[in-house]
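dude i think i finally got it to work??
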Amino acid sequence: MSDCTVLIADDEKLAREAVKLQLATYPNVQIVAECTNGKQALEQILQQKPGIIFLDIQMPVLNGLEMLQQLPAAYHPAIIFVTAYDTYALQAFENDAIDYLLKPFTDNRFDKAFQKALKICKSQQVNESLPEANLTERLQKALKQFQQESTNTISIKDGAKFYILSLQDVMYVEAAGDYLAVFTAEKKYLHKETLSNLENTLPDHFVRIHKSYIVNTGFIRELHSQFNGDYTVLLKGGQQLKLSRNYRERLSHLLS
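look at this
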C-alpha cells in the first residue's frame, strides 16, 4: 500500500524524468499519472485525486495556474512547483504552495520539498496546512510578480542541464539549425527554440538585426556601412554581426 499518490505535470520530458528518478528512492510512493500539458493534468487529477502534485507553471493548452482554477474547491493536494525560473522571482510562491523546486535541483533540495509534502499527505491535514485564503487567487497575484521579475532572466536548456542567465549578460543570439546559440562574454549555450519565438519574449533592448541574429543593443560598439546597404555591427567583445537592410529600421536610432 502506498503512503501517498503522486502526479507529475511538466511538458519537458527531462524534467519529468528528473522527478521520477528522485521519487524512485522513496518506498511506498505511487506515481499515478505523468502529464505533458495542463488539460491532461486536469483530467488525471480529477480522476486520480493524487495527494501530491509536481506542477510546472508554463505548459501547453492550460498553464499550471489555469489548471488549478478548475480544481474542486474542497480538494487541496500538496502542490510543489517545478520551474526553471530564478529563486528571487519565486519568493512570492513560498506562502502559497507547499514548496517549489528550481530546475536543475539537487537531491537535498528535492528531499526537503518532498518530505514537507509527504508529511502533509500522510497526516491527511492538507486543509489545515494551507492558508484559508483562496489558493488560486493568491497564486495569480504571485504569478504577476513572477512574470514581471522573470523578464530579467532567461532559462536555457543546454543538453541535460538548465541554466538561468541574466539578460544583461547575453550579448547576442544566433540561429543554428534547430537550435539557438546564446552568447555571453564567457560561454556559448545551445537552446532548442526558434528565433521568432524567443524574440517575442525578450525586452525592447534586444533587437532582430538579421534573419539569423538578435543582438543586445547595450553591447553594440560600432556600426559600419557596406556598399550594398547592409551594415556590420561590431560588438564590445569584438564580435562582428551582419545587419541586413530588411532589419535596418530597427536600429534607426543608432544610425541617425
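Residues 4-150 form a domain with the Rossmann fold fold (CATH 3.40.50.2300).
im so relieved honestly
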